[in-house]
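Feature request, filed as a ticket because there's no other form

It would be nice if the structure record came with a short human-readable summary line next to the tokens. Right now we just get the raw output. Example of a typical job, pasted below so the devs can see what we mean:
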Amino acid sequence: MYGAVYGDLIGSLYVYREYLKHDAKLMKKVAEEDKLLKTNSFYGAETMLVVAVREATIKGINYSTNLRKYILDNCADLKRENYFKNYFSNNMVRCARGNMRGRSSGNGAIARISGISNILLSSVQMINDCINATVPTHDSNSSIKASLCLGMFIFFAENNCPKDKIKKIIDLYYPYEYGFSLDELRKNMRFNRTCDETMPICLYAIFNTNNFEDAIRLTLSLGGDTDTNCSIVGAMAESLYGMPEDLIESTKTYIPEKYDKILQYIDKKE
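Raw output as currently delivered:
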């Protein structure tokens, strides 16, 4: 979970700029800097939804109820820039206010799934929880597929399944086309909005790196929807490789204490 939050934080400063115009040279440069977390990095929707799902898991709250609460509690924020001045899309806010399911295929459905792991007993439970945590705002086939892809990746990684076997499982049950080269990916990169655009980028990054930091740096260097992409890859990389303790401690200083308590509760399996 801290991996997802960390990815959200480091991608936060570049997402609006990338939305306006993809800058391949800039993204490669910032991904090579010594420290990716900056003083002005900030958490956003990805972090809030991870915490919302985690809290629901801990307390036995309905996912839909808690997701809507977090969306409505944070939908009036005005700190962000222009298109991204609010944490959540207008559609998500309308769904939360109207207590109705959203049909979006947007990539905001994915990273929250990292809030489900650790205390699960079976892959069947993981599948059910992935679906239940997705459909309140993103009840579409592409969103559910992406959520299941991330959820099952995390489930098998946390159960010490080797990466090559996880890849076979993902390719069999939740297939995406990500067999491109890095040069092809960089050449064709654009701002990714949907689940179908996003998961191939994230799967390429995780399957072509061998540790937490390299996975995050490669993802950031690609640009696009940087906070979402890095949050998803951060969740996968943490489950597969673990996350360096110094990065966890740094991440904690950027989020509210109440969020950190929720994340710590599960990490310690209390």
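Something like this underneath would help us a lot:
The mean pLDDT is 92.
DSSP finds 15 helices and no strands in the chain.
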